[in-house]
């Protein structure tokens, strides 16, 4: 399991068949997922910062209400830096479930002046992780937002890793100043020669992440529901990130379920829900 500082508030989940996950209350941040009989699936930087105000480098940061600097508020929004609360924790016959909630308070309203609640539901079965993000507008005015489940998938070697399922999709290449491109091949090979940072639009519901052997290939099947975009990000060897080891870039790829291009317009009193599932196959 990924190493965590001793004094962080965390919740451990374990399904009856032995899959496990760990979530930090800070950020409602999933930092570990180990399927039954399997290995850690999420990358968490050993140099990550933790605690009040910190953004954790790895796991699954919740991005809301803005992506990156595409708005006037804090980078990647305010959800990843706030304390969340447990509203439900259950174990069923073949699953484990956790629901966390973040509601607006004085600090969030200072950054973004809206009344809202986020609920993140984490559900584990033997080989599958389901994450659901729900946004409620609790105010009397509509608001617009972007969101993402910024998932850092652990890989042994980035350069042996391939993303499948984006064929024919348009993308915005953030390394090339936002230039538009089209993913022609069915396999996006992560060459690691430099950074990759793409916002891919209108992604089909199912994507694959495959690590080619040796050792034998490992494959994650990802399914998005309600998220229209995906982000593919790896900072490459010249990353300069102080919370990532020099060689840390080789051990993850972010393949994120996201809602970026078309901001969601949420009327007062309404809700929006989207999901990302990952299955070891
Ligand atoms: O360093 P962070 O604020 O966590 O952002 C990490 C990365 O997030 C996304 O994947 C963006 O597309 C990248 O441009 C960004 O570098």
Automatic annotation (TrEMBL):
**Where's the active site on this chain?**
150, 256
Q: Entry's InterPro entries?
A: Aldose_1/G6P_1-epimerase (IPR008183), G6P_1-epimerase (IPR025532), Gal_mutarotase_sf_dom (IPR011013), GH-type_carb-bd (IPR014718)
E.C. numbers: 5.1.3.15
* Swiss-Prot/TrEMBL catalytic activity: alpha-D-glucose 6-phosphate = beta-D-glucose 6-phosphate
Q: Which GO terms describe its molecular function?
A: carbohydrate binding; glucose-6-phosphate 1-epimerase activity
What does the sequence similarity comment in the record state about its family? Belongs to the glucose-6-phosphate 1-epimerase family.
Entry-linked PANTHER family: APOSPORY-ASSOCIATED PROTEIN C-RELATED, GLUCOSE-6-PHOSPHATE 1-EPIMERASE
Question: This chain belongs to which protein, by name?
Answer: Putative glucose-6-phosphate 1-epimerase
Organism expressing this protein natively: Inhella crocodyli
What lineage is this protein's organism placed in? Bacteria, Pseudomonadati, Pseudomonadota, Betaproteobacteria, Burkholderiales
